[in-house]
Fold this protein.
Amino acid sequence: MNDLTMAQLEANCDCLGLDQVKANLASALEEAARTNQNYRDFLAQLLEAQVTCQQERRSAGRIRYARFPYQKTIDQFDFDFQPSLDRKRIKELLTLRFLAHGENVIILGPPGVGKTHLAIALGLVACQQGECVYFSTAEELVTSLREGYTDNRLKERLRFFAKPKLLIIDEFGYLPIDRLGANLIFQLIARRYEEGAVIITSNRSYSEWGEVLGDNVVAAAILDRLLHHSVTLNIKGESYRLREKRKAGLLNRPVEECKMTEQDRVGTFQIGEN
Ligand code: ADP
Ligand code: MG
């Protein structure tokens, strides 16, 4: 192939945004000539590299958009350390069927048991599978909705948090939420109900959500919608963060377990009763 044709081909690649085709073109042509490769295989091979690269870029873009606080995968999760966790249920969740059905996942347990890690791992898989994900702590979410409320832009904020196929709300219950905050969360959950999946992590049992939200009625209304189609993972183990310290003998008392009731285990709730 003469230089002019090659230059034209490269310019056309630029025009179409086929940067991988352009990068691989010269070597692919050489290889094809050397091995007598047929036209179909030649084209398939060139396009394959382009498609793979574009998928990786889009996936990376979705991961950036999601704003995960850190990236941890399910392969990095030590199930042996957390025997209360059913691997089969996690495996089922990783198929993302819950996303397709707009089901929610509520991960309960004391600090350090891997709630955020699991939520992120599921979120990462969703991003890789082409889904839009957004991660927020409960506090950030309430702050943002509250700002929207004050600035007369609540609708916009609700639309923003309702849009992702998967919304992860982390650390629900670490800080108390006032009445307005509770009301705003209710509006968001009601909006996402049966439309988009939510993953919530919390160190508080369902029976304590009324206390967190300062309003038993709103808490019941939120839980009613959240739990209608949902999976509850109740992690009962010890903090992974403190594992090393315990190993080194720096701690000797077991970390206080999150107060879980039988109702939490089966996914029902009774506000205000433990
Ligand atoms: P939680 O959200 O329950 O407070 P995190 O998910 O933030 O806890 O976990 C705390 C740290 O310990 C993270 O770095 C996480 O990756 C790690 N971790 C927790 N549980 C496990 C586990 N079973 N296997 C591997 N790493 C874990
Ligand atoms: Mg956490």
